[in-house]
Each structure stands twice: as C-alpha cells, then as structure tokens.
C-alpha cells in the first residue's frame, strides 16, 4: 500500500520504485501471496506504475507479469479481479504493441470478457480496456469480436443502471466498429445502432449522450447497407438524421445495387415525407437526393394547327377550245 501511494503521483517516482533492486520482483511475487489483500495491493501498485508511460508499462511486461495478472482476474475475491483488470487496462492503453502483448497471452481476452459478463465490480475497467485494445486497429478489433466482447458490451449498455458504465460500453462499441464495414455489420446485426440511438435520445447525462452519439456516427460511417439506416429514420432527431442522410447518399453513389433496392422499396418517398414536414431544418438535404434521382423531363409535344382544305375552283374552259374538241358544236 505504501508503494502504491508513492508510484501513483508521477513517472519519476514510479521509476525510482522499480529501479530499486528487488522491488519489482517482490511485487510480482506478492501477486501469488496467500493473503488476498496482499494480492489486491500488488496488482494496484503495478497498475499505478503502468499508467504513467509506455516505457514503464513495457518494463512490467518484460518482467513477465501478464500471465500472473490473468490468473488474478480469475481470483475468488472480486477486489483482486478488479485491480488485476485495472492493471491490464493501464498496460494495454499505451500502444498497439502492448495491447497485442496482452491479447497474445493464452485465454487473456476470454478471461477478461468472462469477468466483465459476471462481475459488476470490474465492468468499468473491463469495458474501457476492450475499447482501448479495439481502437488501435482492425486486427485487434476483430479479436475482440471473435471473443464476443461486443455482445457483453451490449449487455452492459442495455441492462446496467450506472451511467458511467453505460458510457464506457457505448464508447468501446464505437472503438470496435469504426475500422471496417465487416465488423460494423456484425455490430449492426446485434442492434447496436438502435440501442445507441435509444440511449442518446432517452438519457439526460451529457457525457453518456456524447459517447453514444460519437459511436453511432463511427459505426454508421462503416455501414454500406441502406436498410438498417432507414430503420433509424423515424427514431432520430435532426442532428442524427443529417448523418443518416449523408451516409445513405454516400452508399447510393457508390453501389448501383443498393440504389436499385432503394428505388424498389420506395425509400425516396419516405425520405421526402420526413424532410418536407413543416418546420423541418433538413429540407436542404433533399438536394443530395435530387442529384441522385433527377426528375424525368418529358419533352413537350406541340400540336400543329389543322389546315382547312380549300376547294380549288375548276379551270375555266374557253369556247374556242370546246369547238376544237367537238367540231359539231359551233
């Protein structure tokens, strides 16, 4: 506990502690102590060291503490689990290499996600850790999805009553879905967009609303299918509706098949119905769709006036000509 109080202040003090001969080895050894409070304080002290810089976190990884931290996430005492996951979060948030080091430990992600699913005490650290890992690149985000991390985050978002936990889950879902259409599709299949929109609409907490809105936009940007976006149209306010319309127009410009389906399902009429309501500030958004679906111009056919037939008078036959033709008549 004394060492924890020293290292928490800054990187300089944390460096002095682990540079002291035998201290780091003693802390690692304490993670296996029979007294659960010693295990708890050892994990907390290592978390206080790791949080300051990437170099300090790397030194802990080099000391081979990751397997022991994973064991502590399965501890019978929830306090030990919580501090172990906090330490893993502080290590993995610094760089893609450190995040990958954590994921490469056998059963690391499964253990963290299982803990997040079962224990309320570790949900904040676990949710944030998943977001940090997934946020670095597509490969790590895919590993989170493969371990069903997105499903557990959805459970936290829907069922938890603590707003700071819901905010952490909302943020992490955006970190997972921001990389590719492939991953975004898997989130959309779990109704992530609808759930984030519901949280954004119903909550008064500014932090939670902002996290939900940002994640909603990040996942929508990677959505290249019109139908799930159209399902949000009737639920969204003007700010979110604008983002939906921009993404729908972007999809239609790049995908002829989606454009055909858009026409077949009469989605354009639905959009115009929403945008032309009295008082709507989104009427300018119709310009995007007017460019995509210009009105068909039918050429005007001019009717030509009917000319009346004028009977021509029969030619006048002179008497002399008649005599020539008929000599009997003189």
* Count of strand segments: 0
Indicate the CATH architecture of the domain at 1-106.
Alpha Horseshoe
Count of helices? 22
Distance between the first and last residues' Cα:
153 Å
Structure, explained:
This protein is mainly α. It has a domain at 1-106: Leucine-rich Repeat Variant (Alpha Horseshoe). Helices cover 69% and strands 0% of the residues. Helix 4 packs parallel to helix 7. The relative contact order is 0.05.
Quick structural summary:
By secondary structure, this protein is mainly α. The protein is built from 22 helices and no strands.
List keywords for this structure.
330 residues; mainly alpha; Leucine-rich Repeat Variant; elongated
What is the fold's blueprint, element by element?
Elements: H1 2-7, H2 11-19, H3 23-30, H4 36-50, H5 54-62, H6 66-72, H7 78-92, H8 96-104, H9 108-118, H10 123-136, H11 138-146, H12 149-159, H13 163-177, H14 181-189, H15 192-202, H16 206-221, H17 226-230, H18 238-254, H19 256-264, H20 267-275, H21 286-292, H22 319-325
Helix pairs in contact: 4-7, 6-7, 7-10, 9-10, 9-12, 10-11, 10-13, 12-13, 13-16, 15-16, 16-18, 18-19
